[in-house]
Hints:
Blueprint: H1 2-19, E1 21-22, E2 27-32, E3 35-46, E4 50-59, E5 63-71, E6 77-85, H2 94-129, H3 142-191, E7 196-204, E8 209-231, E9 238-248, E10 254-262, H4 290-296, E11 334-338, E12 343-353, E13 360-369, E14 372-378, E15 382-391, E16 402-408, E17 411-418, E18 427-433, E19 437-443, E20 449-453, E21 456-469, E22 475-482, E23 492-497, E24 502-503, E25 509-516, E26 521-533
Parallel strand pairs: 1-4, 2-10, 8-16, 14-22
Antiparallel strand pairs: 2-3, 3-8, 4-7, 5-8, 6-7, 8-9, 9-13, 10-12, 11-12, 14-15, 15-18, 16-17, 19-21, 20-21, 21-26, 22-25, 23-26, 24-25
Helix pairs in contact: 2-3
Amino acid sequence: MKKLLLALFVLASTTLFAQSKIITAPITDVTVFLSGAQVIHKGEIALKKGETTYVLTGLTAGMDPNSIQVVGNSAYTILSVKHQLNYNARSSNPKVKAVQDSIKLLSFQAQERSSMRNVYQEEKALLQANRTIKGDNAVLLKDDLQEMADFYRARMKEIEYKFLELSQLDREGNEKLSKLQQVLSQLQAESQTNPGEIEFVLKSDNEEKADIEIRYIAQNAGWTPFYDLRSEDLNSDIEFTYRAKVWQGTGNDWKRVNLTISTGNPSQGAQVPLMSPWYINVYQPIAYDRRKREETYNWNQAPSVARDDMSGYAYGINEKSIASNSMMTSASYTVITNNSVSTEFKITVKYDIASDNQPVEVVMQKQKLKATYKYVAIPKLDLAAYLQAEIVDWMQYSLLPGESNIYFKGTFVGNGYIDPALANDTLSLSLGKDASITVKRDQVKDFCKTNVLGGKKTTSKAYEITIVNTKKIPIYMELYDQLPLSQNADIEVTVEDISGATHDLASGEVLWKLDVAAGANVKKQLKFTVKYPKKSLIQNL
């Protein structure tokens, strides 16, 4: 009975499918959002008089049915549109066989290496078995003995080198095999998905050819921002390159499509949010066992005090190839459109993006930005001067949080992170350390002492900070340090000397704004005294 029902279902599906007219409409335009992409198919259909059902097949299964639009013209009327999965078909991907063939070749090469390793092992055993001179005629001439030793040494050396070579080839082959197996798993998973279809009914009064356009949102796609920042000297503009790393795994390759990058995100929805009541109440502290808290808290791992906006100034150094500034990129063919909710970068050159979830870099913008430069130093945390560029008119570029590559004077100096949410009217970009600015922070031992008077104890601290500008031009520097903050009424902090710096009483931050002449040496002092009960132990002083 079950077999009969299944046969009837297949027959009914085949009959219904045969009554529908399958059309061809390739992907021509794609707008990629931060999450998801709008895919547009365009094609030509042959209209018939009356009502006709058309089907566009082989689409991604990860489609949002609510987003489907069929755009027509005056030649016909759209009566209905629906989305469905074709349970009688599986999406086929020709890449599967290519990857499988590559895996077979790597496996065969691994077997070849294993066989060669056995051959060399047997030869090595043979040499070792025959290196002992035995028998009645064991006395050899000196020349013969030398020739035998040379042969043994040379051949054993060759064999050991072959073992090293085979091991290296094994490592490389295993890495390639692992990557191919991951790609194959992904492709096979996509191939096991029932392809999506869009079925629509058109009514026409004439038999003629007409254009058709079909749009929908595909889920498995998106892009992430990435930036390149280049500066030649302290007087030059910043060369700012805004890139998009576009990826997609919809199951359909995008071939020669018109690509648009959008900062919008349709997955966030368009509904206006609702506010809930904002309740306030008296805080009721919960008692706790102080000893248990001390047991679970490791004071040695307590975070050090640092300015939040300076935490991104440590960079790892890597070698990078630097593209020529004169090269034409997709930024030269980008049209930027701003609306009230997003910005679109329309790339006017066509792109190929495979359905493999691998990022494809697209240059969206390339601009020269006016910048002012300053140096920033926090010698308590790092004895280095960091060059920083400040850009005022950054908001017009629709920037999103993302990583950046930083180049100064043609050299890659490190990676950074741009977060527009942390910027106000000025966007600060770090360009790395400058070794031509020397920073020192020394303790003044003559002032550092502890005294006891009555029931109080006083501890005095002093530091001398030295800035040396070895450059041939003057620089502007912001020099930061800090004074301790008391959280106990019995602990008093007295500022003795801060050499004209500004002091933020709330944070304890001390700031010197310095103009340092070429070749100049500037010294600043930080002195303070802490008074507290003599039987108390002050932590972190």
